[in-house]
Amino acid sequence: MSAPIVQGWCPGAHRPMMSGDGLVVRVRPRLARLSVAQALGLCALADRFGNGTIDLTNRANLQLRGVGEADHQPLLAELAALELLDGEPGIEVRRNILFSPLYTHGDLTERLGRELTERLGELPALPAKFGFAIDTGAGRLLSGDSADIRLETGGNGLILRADGVDTGREVTEGEAIDRLIELAHWFADRFTPDTRRMARLVRAERLPAIWQGTQTGPVGEPLAPGDTTLGPLYGAAFGQLPAQSLAALLRDSGAVALRVTPWRLILLESARAIPAPDFVTRTGDPLLTTDACPGAPYCPQAQAETRDLARALAGRVSGSLHVSGCAKGCARMGRADITLVGNDGQFDLVKQGRAGDEPCQRGLTPETLKTMDLT
Description:
By secondary structure, the chain is of the alpha+beta class. It contains nine helices and 20 strands. Helices cover about 25% and strands about 25% of the residues.
């Protein structure tokens, strides 16, 4: 099995990534929210220019797949018309911001998010995957998600925290974005090719005491499919949203907006909860916690089809399941109880590990895996 190629960057709208079925074009919703008109427009573009699905990523972005190279510029024009495109590619690259999704109009999360978005041009040059989290609800919901600088609820107010350390710096709302930009400059002055994320840098170089010392607030209850005060949550198996089904759900539920999360959940603002057979609606459904990349033939590095097997095995594995098309393991960077790694049309089995770890069994066919004991 040849070693997979690590790209070191994520696709965007202006800078898409070529995959096995065409270009992957990423859309970064502002404040993790699309109006219903924007969401319906994106569904139409997925059908017109892509493969008819929209991917929901673990950074709460949306992706169109299967876009032809000749269609890229026309697609950008349509995204701009929907106000889903940054005019300046450099700003788009910097707009890696996670939002706690249960914010309300005008609250602290929204105010901080708007100010940070408006001041992205003041940030220094940062690695492509460097990102931010605004997690200022009553309970922190993003503590397990990828971000390098975090604005969070602290024990007595707002704190700014560098990822990789347990405590942060107490800040006021008025100075919060100034201090965030200051911490970003501290990182930019010191990172190396081996320390391109904050958590890695603070392991190699001590973070000054001024950025530490204030305890974080409590972690909130994880969200799950079902009703919230803002509207119903629906899950997306493998983060895949069928565009026509999503458009019908938006229209039939009376939603006024769509919010995206890093957990394969979408929130339909002010909507009615209605049946949605193409989405996950049951808390605890194993499809929502089973990880599987697009696999072959959609990814040129994948060496096996993944998602049909993942659907067949979901619920049969006691614990977490990750089905990866190659050893890179894009769908899940952390450990899983069971990891299956594509290898020349078959799979290698890793227990309690990652896709790149040494397998305990090799050369398993999908048929064998569907009948063997994976506990």
